[in-house]
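Record format v2
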Amino acid sequence: MEHYYQPEIECASPEQIQAWQDERLVETVKHVYEHVPYYRDKMDASGVTPEDIKSTRDLHKLPFLTKSDLRDAYPYGLVAVPLSECVRIQSTSGTTGRRVVAFYTQHDLDLWEDCCARAIMAAGGTKEDVVHVSYGYGLFTGGPGLNGGSHKVGSLTLPMSSGNTERQIQFMCDLGSTILCCTPSYAAYLAESITERGLRDKIKLKAGIFGAEAWTEEMRQDIQNKLGIKAYDIYGLTEISGPGVAFECSEQTGMHINEDHFIAEVIDPNTGEVLPDGEKGELVFTSITKQAFPLIRYRTRDICVLTRKKCSCGRTHVKMSKPMGRSDDMLIVKGVNVFPSQIETVLLNKGYPANYQIIVTRENNSDQLEVQVEMTQEMFSDTLGRVAALERELIEAMKAMLGIYVKVTLVAPKSITRSEGKAVRVIDKRNLY
Ligand code: DLL
């Protein structure tokens, strides 16, 4: 139980991984064809039968599944076992359109928790650790996933959930939390609050496992410096189980995808063509060990690169880069593609904190992009009279990064609302017109 670093799986030879994937894919496709009418109809419509799928080399023959399929089949249309076999439902926040609900058998919960346990081990976690879980609990997968993983590692688990920053910090100090799990934006907020209270010396944190939203390398450095920890990335999505689909190891150069459970492809988002490793495109997952809610060729909308370079940690599973934003997060402003992560990079490189808000409006048929940027307290006391010059400097830096004019407004410390879960960075008012 306490050994969730599984070298025989995580460091398996490429041939072994391929053999697992071939066998499990064939079984999964047969299973969904027989048990999920929605899949059968989709495969029939594409003229592909389970017999056509003999190994992963045939994966490209299968149709893609998208979020709109999940919405069409809502709520039970993609469940592949009798409901009496399912023991849990989790769901996405559903900010746009209908919620996505995912189903789990006990076996599915076990494998999900195993994946999270691997992530905790890769961040240096052992049964000696106190794992402080500040992801939300409930329908969101963050809390339950890392909680289950921490139990499997045998660590002492603190199911804090999100919010109540005062109590978070008090427990962290009193109980000696060593590994913090939360969104990177909340970690930045906690770091800020700990520094302000002069409690940096009272905390025992050594590592953080941060994910569920895009964050930049600059933000990683900032959190690492402020909290004196190593900050590891973790990736996942409700549809494919939750956190732990991929996680970072000591090398901190991308996240190993648990290839014994998930097959990853990167495709051209416009043509659907499968791209070779090393090329940037949309990440597509096929789950090959799940019972209740197996998804085949699910388009995540996350843009990233896969690499198979040898990793110093010894793990052989393919690595995904940090998602460079979602294809549906990408803003098109005056015809130019803008990712919030590019704006964040400029700000952090210039020494601003990661507290900012992007506002897009349309005036006289022309898009306007404004970034409100919070100043630190020192900047605020220091820069009276120089604000306009600092804004101009940021406007220049944004122009160099994005190629367009961005209005920059420096705002007072603490004037931008902090997030306790996933940060809402963009307010696009164009839809309201
Ligand atoms: O965010 C699961 C999760 C919980 C992952 C805790 C990591 C930690 P959803 O709410 O379904 O699930 O959102 C999934 O969040 O498609 C990505 O766009 C984004 N995302 C998740 N992890 C990362 C990450 C959870 N490390 C969506 N970096 C995904 C960037 C991420 N984006």
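The pocket of DLL is lined by residues 92, 135, 141-142, 211-214, 233-238, 242-243, 300, 302, 322-323, 326 (CB under 6 Å).
The chain has two domains: 1-326, 331-428.
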